[in-house]
Specification:
alpha+beta; Conserved hypothetical protein from pyrococcus furiosus pfu- 392566-001, ParB domain; 4-stranded mixed β-sheet; 18% strand
């Protein structure tokens, strides 16, 4: 499997998915503002998948999870995954990319995951 399996930029649908998820946490207006901030944030910070999961209090999904399996298959075929979108706070919110983080962990738990990060 490819060790470098990340794109340089997030895709438009990632921001829409992030906004949809965040609207469940903070309502539509605040979610729109956070998604807009994520779109504006151009720099990527790399973090280990295990650290992201710990900071977000999220369990590692197994490789049998359908979306994790799909991401693992993409990498196997040579496709690159979008960077993940995070909202910093206590706990960390994975606005988009939970399954990609888990897939990356299964490829190599030491691999750094590229993240766009904004604060609440």
């Amino acid at each position: 499997m490819a060790s470098e399996h990340w794109k340089d930029k997030a895709e438009a649908q990632d921001f829409l998915a992030a906004e949809s998820y965040l609207s469940l946490l903070v309502g539509p207006e605040a979610a729109f503002k956070l998604a807009k901030a994520l779109r504006k944030q151009r720099s990527l910070k790399n973090h280990a998948a295990k650290d992201i999961l710990r900071a977000a209090n999220l369990p590692l999904l197994g490789p049998e999870d359908s979306e994790v399996a799909a991401d693992l298959n993409k990498v196997k075929l040579g496709d690159r995954l979008s960077p993940v979108l995070l909202v910093q706070g206590e706990p960390l919110w994975v606005a988009d990319g939970y399954h990609r983080i888990c897939a990356s962990y299964h490829l190599d738990e030491k691999t750094e995951v590229p993240c766009r990060i904004v604060t609440r």
